[in-house]
Amino acid sequence: MNTLFINGQFVESTSTNQLEVINPVTEEIIGEVTLANEEDTKKAIDGAKEAQLKWEKVNIVKRAEIVKGLVEKLEKNKKELAKVYVEEQGKPIYAAIGEIEKSIEYIKYMCSLARKNNGEVLQSEVANETIILTKKPVGTTAGIIPWNAPIFVLMRKLIPALVTGCSIVIKPSEETPFGAFKLAEYIQKTDIPDGLVQIITGTGSKVGNLLSKSDDIDLVSITGSTGAGKSVMASASNNVKKVNLELGGKAPAIVTKNADIEKAANYIVEARIKNSGQVCTCPERIYVSKDIFDEFVSAVKDKMSDVHPGDPYDDATTMGPIINQTQLTSIDEKVQTAVKEGATIELGGHIINRKGFFYEPTILTNLSKDSIVMKEEIFGPVLPIVSFENFEEVLDEANNSDYGLSSYIFTEDLKEAMVASERLKFGEVYVNCEAEEAVVGYHAGWRQSGLGGADGINGFEEYLNTTVTYIRYE
Question: Residues with catalytic annotation?
Answer without folding.
Answer: 246, 280
